[in-house]
Amino acid sequence: MADYDYDVLIIGAGPGGLEAARVCAERGRRGLIVAGWSDLVGAYLGDHVRVVDEVVHAEVLPHCAAAVHHGGAGTTAASLRAGLPTLVCAVTADQPFWGERVRALGVGAAVRLSSFTDDDARAGLAVLFDDGTRSAAAALARRMTPADKAVAAAADICEARLT
């Protein structure tokens, strides 16, 4: 595996993110937690885990080897477009759907946050660092439309329908 600044980008400081960070630290993997509005910003969680309040996905994802997050459409697209194996910790709405797509495509794993355990964190991270998962995620990223082109195409469709 290439050398990355962070082995795992963990978006969200909920129970799933904290368990994933703890398991990362146990295994000597470097984690970056994007804690957002939580009271974890600035907290010390060990030498292998850094906590920040926010990041720009496009800037930080290329410096990560994998992602753990809630599975919203935008975050899922950003992590997959960056070629990152992804662990979706679904909470509500469309997140279980995106988690299932990630799993079915072989580019990561999914679990409902309400039932997330240490074993889920260990199993999920094992999937993320599996060579087959990493290859599948990289291949999918090469097939995805770049974000700027996708936005332009969507805008064109909307404008065409308005005229």
Overview of this protein structure:
- The chain contains seven helices and six strands; from the N terminus they run βαββαβαβαβααα.
- The chain has helices at residues 15-26, 57-60, 73-81, 95-104, 118-128, 131-143, 147-162; strands at residues 6-11, 31-34, 49-52, 64-69, 86-90, 108-112.
- Strand 4 (64-69), helix 3 (73-81) and strand 5 form a beta-alpha-beta unit.
- It is an alpha/beta fold and 163 residues long.
- It starts with 5 loop residues before the first strand and ends with a helix.
- The chain has a six-stranded parallel beta sheet with strand order 3-2-1-4-5-6, sandwiched between helices.
- The radius of gyration is 16 Å and the shape is globular.
Entry summary:
The chain has 163 residues and is α/β, with parallel strands linked by helices. The protein has helices spanning 15-26, 57-60, 73-81, 95-104, 118-128, 131-143, 147-162; strands at 6-11, 31-34, 49-52, 64-69, 86-90, 108-112.
Helix/strand-derived class? Answer: alpha/beta
| Alpha-carbon distance between the two ends | 50 Å
Rg over alpha carbons: 16 Å
- Name the helix and strand elements from N-terminus to C-terminus, one letter apiece: EHEEHEHEHEHHH
> How big a fraction of the residues is strand?
15-25%
How many DSSP-defined strands? 6
Strand order of the largest sheet: 3-2-1-4-5-6
Largest sheet: 6 strands, parallel
Query: Rough shape?
Result: globular
Helices and strands, with pairings:
Layout: E1 6-11, H1 15-26, E2 31-34, E3 49-52, H2 57-60, E4 64-69, H3 73-81, E5 86-90, H4 95-104, E6 108-112, H5 118-128, H6 131-143, H7 147-162
Helix pairs in contact: 1-5
